Amino acid sequence: MSRLYVVARTPEEIGRHFKVDVVPEIAVPSETIEGGPGLIVIEKDGLRLLKSVSWGFPRQTRGMQFNSEPPGRIGLVADLTNPLWDRIVFDPRYRCLIPITHFANPDGPKGRKTRAWFSNTKEPLLAWAGFCRNTPEFGPVFAGMTMTANELVRPFNDRMPVLLKRAEWDLWLHGSIKDVIACQFREPLPSDEFEVLPTCDLWRGGMPPRPKSFLNPETMPI
């Protein structure tokens, strides 16, 4: 999966959808990339909270340490056995829901790749299964778990987000490690629930999703 997604909703809409107890005055990013701000829903002391934190856990290889380089970011959880995650995947305290309406994949030839956006037609605002933690390097951070892509996404990328249905939210937030593993290795949501929105926007520096009338190259404004 690529490292670009959007939640195209207001804080109030997100709060109502996820049954957040108190919706804070919070900015919704126009898009989220690794290192940038994103919104997550957590449960703490019996309350469901909406927070803005940065996307990507700190990651520093031995080579980076040897060269005194600062840590990088890793925002996607593909391998649960990676030592980077072994302290958090077992503990429900580190689970979160990531509100998401669209995720992107690059399309086209190298050097001229554009943004192709994917969204779910049955439930436009979804929860992406995520992990979160407070870190010394970057403060509060989050990452999203990925899985094998469905047939619609696969020509663009062999991975996609683990998207949770509403009935699965509590299981994700409070379940066991077996539940986490089951979520990652189940079948992805079917292709017929998704649509792909091709654009003429360059991958780097492009725009978030727009109305369909602006997504067809033949109708793009000059």
Q: Mind explaining what this structure looks like?
A:
This protein has 4 helices and 15 strands. A hairpin with a 3-residue loop joins β11 and β12. The longest helix has 9 residues. The chain is globular. The two termini are 32 Å apart.
Main attributes of the structure:
single chain, five-stranded antiparallel sheet, 12% helix, mainly beta, eight-stranded mixed sheet, 15 strands, 222 residues, 4 helices, disordered C terminus, hypothetical protein yedk fold, globular
Number of helical regions: 4
Strand content: 35-45%
Approximately how much helix is present in the residues? Answer: 10-25%
Mean pLDDT: 91
Query: What would CATH call the class?
Result: Alpha Beta
Write the topology of this structure.
Layout: E1 4-6, H1 11-17, E2 32-33, E3 37-44, E4 47-55, E5 57-59, H2 62-66, E6 72-74, E7 76-77, E8 95-100, E9 102-107, E10 114-120, E11 126-135, E12 139-148, E13 159-161, E14 163-164, H3 169-174, H4 177-185, E15 194-202
Parallel strand pairs: 4-12, 7-12
Antiparallel strand pairs: 1-2, 1-9, 3-4, 5-6, 8-11, 9-10, 10-15, 11-12, 11-14, 12-13
What is the compact description of this entry?
By secondary structure, the protein is mostly beta strands. It is built from four helices and 15 strands. Strands 3, 4, 7, 8, 11, 12, 13 and 14 form an eight-stranded mixed β-sheet that branches. A five-stranded antiparallel β-sheet has the order 2-1-9-10-15, with no helix packed on it.
